[in-house]
Batch of 3 targets.
Target 1
Amino acid sequence: MGAGHPLTLKWLGIDTYQEAVIYLHRDCEVCRSEGFEAQARVRVEAAGGQIVATLNVVDSDILAPCEAGLSVVAWRQLRVADGDTVRVSAEPPLDSLVALRGKIYGRRLDAAAMRAIVDDIAAGRYANIYLAAFVAACAGGRLDVDETVALTRAMVDAGQRLDWGRAPIADKHCVGGLPGNRTTPIVVAIATAAGLTMPKTSSRAITSPAGTADTMETMAPVELDLPAIRRVVEREGGCVVWGGAVGLSPADDMLIRVERPLGLDSEGQLVASVLSKKVAAGATHALIDIPVGPTAKVRSPQAAALLMTLLEHVAATLGLSTRIVLSDGAQPVGRGVGPALEARDVLAVLRREAGAPADLAERALMLSGALLEFCGAAAEGTGIATARGLLDSGRAWRKFLAIADAQGGFREPPRAAHVRVVDAPCAGRVGAIDNRLVSRIAKLAGAPRDAAAGLELFVKVGDRVDAGAPLYALHAESPGELDYAFDYVAAHPETVVVLPA
C-alpha cells in the first residue's frame, strides 16, 4: 500500500445503500493531522485496492482512535476482513466540479467537460451530493442534443464494451412508466428461439416497483460477470442479466443510485442511460418501446415525438440502428406489479397458461414481431405471426428455461406472506387506473426491495364490477408494510376509479 495513515478495520455493519463511507474517531491521528471534517472525501487503500469514500466522524467509543469502520458497500469494494489494515489519505480536489458548478448556473457542458465529469463519476470520485447536483442540473430539459450525445459517448467510453464479432445483435428497451410492462424476458425468449443473438443487459428499478433485472432475478441469477455472459450467449443465443454487475456503463449505475431516491429520470439522462447500455453491450439493432398515456412517464404524443427524435439522433450518431414503437400507456400491463408478481405473469405467458394476462402476451408478441422484422428474422408484415408460432409451439418457453439454466438455474418466484384485497366501493364500470398511484402503492408495500411484495390487479379499464368485487390486492412481507401501504390506499381511492352504474 501507498502513503497514508495505517488504521485497523472494525466491522460495523452499517448499510449506506451504494455510497462508500469510512468512519473514523474524532481523535484519530488522521482527522487531527489532516484536519479532516465530516463529509470530506478521502482515499482509502487496502491490499485489495483503493476507493474514494465519504468521511463520517464518530465521537462515541464504537471506534477507537486507531480503528476505522467502513460501510457495507465500501467493505465489499475493498474485499477486506475484520482486523485488516487500511491507509487513509486526502483526495485531491476534483477539477470537474468547476464544470459541474457552471452547469448549475446554466452554462453548457462541452464534450471535454462532460467526459471529465463522467470519468470522475465512473471512478467513484463523486459523493452522492455531487451526483445529486449533476442529476438535478441536467433535469428538466437542461441537456441539449449535443450535450446528450456527449454524455452518452462518455458513458460508453468510461466502461467495458462487448464485441460479438457478428451482426445483427438485437436489443429491446422500454423507457418505463408503465407498471407491469415486463415484456423483455418474453421477447428475449422469442427472439433467441428464432435464432437471433440477444445479450440483454437490464437495469434494476430506478423509480418503479421493479426493473427487468429485479423480475428476472426471482427466476434465475442475473449477477453474471462478462465471461459468464459470453458463455451463456454463445450457448443459448441470449441472456437476461443485470448490467450493473459488469461495468458496461458504470457512470450510469452511479447516477441511478441517486435518481432512485430523488424520483428523477430526466429526458437527456434517460436517452444517455438507455443508449450507452445498448452500445456498450454490443447491440447493433435496438427496438425501443415508448408507452404514452396520461399517467405514464411519457404523457402526450408531442412529448413522445420529441423523445423519439432525440433517441434516433443520438443512436445514429453512435452507429446504433433503432426502431421506435409508440404503445398504449393508459393503464398497467398484466396483473402483477413488483418483481415476483411480474415474473408470475411472464411465466404464465411463456407456459401458455389458460389464465395468462392477454394484454401482456399481445404486447410481447407485437414487440417481438417488430424486432424479428427489424433484424431480418421475419419478412415485413409476418413478424407477429412468426412470434406467435414460436410462443404457441412451446419453443420460446423451452428457450427461456435453457437461458435460465445457463445463467445458473431456473426457480419459481416467491410468494408474499401477507395479502390484503381492495374491493369495489360500488357496482359500475372501471373508468381509470392511475399508473403512478399503482406504482407508489406497490413500492410502499415493499417492492422492489422485497421481491414478493407489490400489487396485483384483477380488473382493466372498461370492466364491469359488482359492489364488493375485488379490484386489486396488496402483497407484503410484513403486516406493518401491508398496513402502511393500505393507509395510502385509503387516502387515494382514485387509484382505481369505478364509475357507478
Target 2
Amino acid sequence: MKKSLTLSAALLAASAFVAPAMAEHHGDKEAVHEQLESPLDPILASDIRKDDMARDKYRHPKDTLVFFDIRPDMKVGEYAPGGGWYSRILGPLLAEKGQYVGLFFNPDNLPFSDEAKERTRAGAAKFPEDVAKWTGISADKFPTYTMDKVPAEAKGTMDRILIIRMMHNMLRWNMADSEIAAMRDLLKDDGMIGIVQHRAKADASYALSDGNKGYLREADVIKFMEVHGFELVNSSEVNANDKDTADYENGVWTLPPAFAKKDVDKEKYEAIGESDRMTLLFKKRP
C-alpha cells in the first residue's frame, strides 16, 4: 500500500508545478494532464483525506479533475461544497498559485424555512474556517460567497466552477436558472463549468428524472446548459456505473453511502456501489 503523505509534502509538490511549462502546453491537453499528476498525487494520498479515500473508487477524483483540466494556478469555485470532500483536494491544490472559492446557494431561493435559510448563510460564513481546519491552510486563502452576495470584483474572474452532484437539487428546488446565471457571471470569457451528476436512463420517465429521485437525464442537462449560455466541450464516462438501474423507489439515496433502506437489501446495494454519473464539461459562450 502506498504510504500516505503529509499535507506539507502535498503542498510542496503543488508548489513545484512549473507555470511556464503549463502555459507552453496550454493547447495540448495530454501534456497539461501529465503535469497535473505531479501535484494531485500527493494530495490524494495525504493524511487529511484518510476518511475520504474509501470513496475514491466511486468518485475518481484524479481522473475527474484531470478531465475538467483543473490546474494549480486557476481560480476554481465549487458550488455547494458541503462536507468538504473536494475541498480537501482543491484547497491544497490551489492554495499557492491559484484560489479555491466556496459557492453556496442563494438562500432566498431555497424552498425552506427562514431558519434553514439562515443556516445556509451561517454555513457559508464559517466555510473558510472549516477548510482551514481540514487542510491546515489559512482561512483567508478561501473566499466564500452565497450566490446573492457575490462581490462585483469577483465577476469574470473564475477559470472553472464545479457542480458535483447538485444539479438535481437546483432543478427540483426551482432555482437552477438564477444560480447558473450567477455562475456564468463569475466565469472568465473562456471559463468552464464541470458537472458530475447522478444519471437517469436516456428513456427514463419524467418521474424518474425530474431531480426528485436525485437523477437527471444527460440530454436534459446538456440542453439546459445550452439554453443558459454554455456549449458542451466534452463528456467522460469516468464516473459511469452500469450496475445502477436508477429506478429505485427511494431514489439515488437507496445506494451507498446513504442506504435509505437501512439494512434492507444492503448487500445488494453495496454490490451496485454508488450511482451512475455523467461527467460533463461546458464552456461559456460569448
Target 3
Amino acid sequence: MSDIGEALTVNRYPGRVLVLARTGDGELTGVYALTGRSPSSKARRIVPGDAELRVEATGEHAHDRLRHYTAAHSDDRWTVFGNGEQVTTVFERLSAGAHPAVALDELDYEPDPPIWTPRITVVVDRRDGTAWLGAARRGGGRRESTDVTVTTLRDLAVGDVALLTTYTSDGTEVTTAPRVLDLTTTAATGDELLDLVWSALDPEFRVAAAQLSPRAGIAAVLRHAP
C-alpha cells in the first residue's frame, strides 16, 4: 500500500476527495476536499452549519446543484459525507431506518457529460465506527446504466486509510476513478492528516478541505485556498 500523500500527489486533479483513516491517536478521522479547474469550481467554500457542512458559492457565482450542496450530515446514530446532493438522500434513508447498504443503493452518477462524475459517499455508524463507502458510476463503454458499489469497512487499524476520489487525472485528461484505494498514513492526529492531504493537493486546483471526526458528529477543521 502507498501513502495517501503519494497517491494524491500523482493524481493532480482528483476532483472531490473522501478520506477515512485511523490516525496515530487511535481516532477515526474523515477528510473531505474540493479541487477545481474552472473559475466556478474554484469559487467555492465549505461552511459549517447545525450538524452539517455545506459547499457554497463565493462571490457572484450562481448556485449550481452539482457544485453546491450539503456535503455532510450527522445525527445521534449516523455521520454521512460525500460529493453531492445524494448525501441528503442517504441521510434521510438512514433516518427512516434503512440499512446503509440499502441507503447507498439506487443512486446515479452526475448528469455532467462527457465526464459523468461519480457520486461518492461515506457512512459511519457512530456507535462502533463501522463504515460503508458507496460509489455510483456510469457503466463502461457505451453502457449508460449506473454501477453502484458499496464497500463495508468493519475496522481500520492505526495507519490505515480508505480513499475515494471522483477523478484520476494528470490535470488535463480526466477519467473517473475506478475504486476505493487502500492506503497508509503516518499522521498522528486528524489535524496532521488534514495538513497532509491539503499539502498533497496540487495548489493549481485545490479549493477547500474539511477534517471531521465521524464518531463525534460534525466537528470540522477547515482549509480554504486564498
